[in-house]
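Researcher: Predict the fold of L-ornithine N(alpha)-acyltransferase.
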Amino acid sequence: MTSSITPRIAAVNLVSNPTISKRLMCALLDHLMGVKQMDKLYQTHQLAGLNKADFAKALLDIQKITAVKHEALLAKIPATGPVIIASNHPFGGIEGVLLAKLISAKRPDLKVFVNKALAIFPELQDYFIFTNPLSPNDPKNAPSLRQAMRHLAQHKALLIFPAGRVSYYQAEFADILDHDWNKMVYTLSQKYSAPILPVFVQGFNRPYFYTLGRIYFRLRMLLLGRELLAKRNTSITLDSGNPVTLPPNLAPEQGAALARALAYAVDSRWHYHWPEDTHSTNKPLANPQIPADLWQELAALPKEQCLIEQADFVVYWSMQAQTPKVVNEIAMLREKVFRMHNEGSGEPLDTDHFDASYTHLFIWHKPTQQIIGAYRMGRTDILQKDLGLDGLYLNKMFKFGSGFINQQEPCLEMGRSFLIPEFQRSPQGLFMLWRGIGEFIMRFPQYRVLYGTVSISKLYRPQSVSIIEHGLINAPENVVPHHAFDLSLPSQIQAYHAKYGLADVVTTFLQALEDDGKDIPVLAKQYQKLGADFHALGIDHSFNHTPGLLLSVDLRKTSPRQQKRFLGQTL
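Model: Structure tokens for L-ornithine N(alpha)-acyltransferase follow.
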């Protein structure tokens, strides 16, 4: 007769060649750490011998632990190729089991870099690469690191908790947060061209866990088993971003800090609700103008108001009194394009009383006999002559101090720009707009400074707008928004910003946050090339509560290369 002994969950299983004293110590730890209770669960539900997927499912089912938003996470994980899924570590154990079980359904090649304490569950060992996070420089961790490197070199998926330890209370921030992330997350990503997919697991352990941890940090380790058992009937929210390639040539510590900040950036508790639209439904657009009528107005303009003609395109400037039908057509096209970005007025035309006093610069496309794009320009010396700051549209959005450029010298206040959809992906339309502006400036040499807002569509996530605001603004003096954008950065992104700055990684954050992968607005990029200063971000209550990023460009300070491209010559 043969007898079989059911394996047991016990701390002694983690010790090689245990002595009697070590066995006694392990028995004591089993009581203190809740391992004895885990063993009872293990025996009662006959978990011994299950394969890793069935064991993980059974453990989660027994504890009645469920996941929220995991479908979105799985949708973002590449089906093939190397990828590092990098997560915060709020619980110290169960999140590893949960994520391993979920992610391996899409990536069966997944390995999880975890604390060697999880080796207590032999059924799960095939998921894991074990390490000792409390001794990151321990030479015994070297084989684990080599295994992770081989895994990524074979174009497989790796889940890692780079903090190496469970989140704990940090007095500096008066919050429960991850430890600094290990630079390994960045170096592995760079070495094996593995994008990083940031994950934020919401939740906390029980309060006494953090209290004892503040007395002595190693006490947290003793309580992890009990915390795992305490997660019964828990629904865990899994926030995730898109996989991103971190910038090369960062110091490894900065690269790890950036990966950590990205995980906190995707935390959905950092949220803001856009104000209600100023209109519930859009009225039908005004009818287009008859092309022949538009051409009649253009033909009547003085020839010096034709700024540039190139191939199929002609750029003009005019006042509304000269070309009322052209300006009506521009207002209709503006409304049409702005509605695509949830910025429209909802009216048949996007117009206001400033259309009468501002200068309109626009592109005429000869083959189709239509206007394809325009800018509205305010000549500040003329507009302020009688009305002062009230003559400026942007005075409604910002309080300008006496030191702001529009109070110092003549400027062009730029706004209401658009290109029709057919030309938005063509560089030619945008190029012609800018060449037209450049030619206008050369003909009116008193204007050497441009300023205005770039609209940041509400199709951006509010978190992205906050990143853009903090990352780009570099000259906040002498101007204050009347209606500020009220979404501050989470403390951990603030900390990264304070140490390293966000300016060079705005694109990285947007790539992680924006589902369609959009970067900062094209116009903002164009202004950046001209050496723009970014002053403030305000909400335009006259433009469907759209955020606007105020910037300025002094063309005298622009590089000769950009002057030549923009103006056609150097100043």
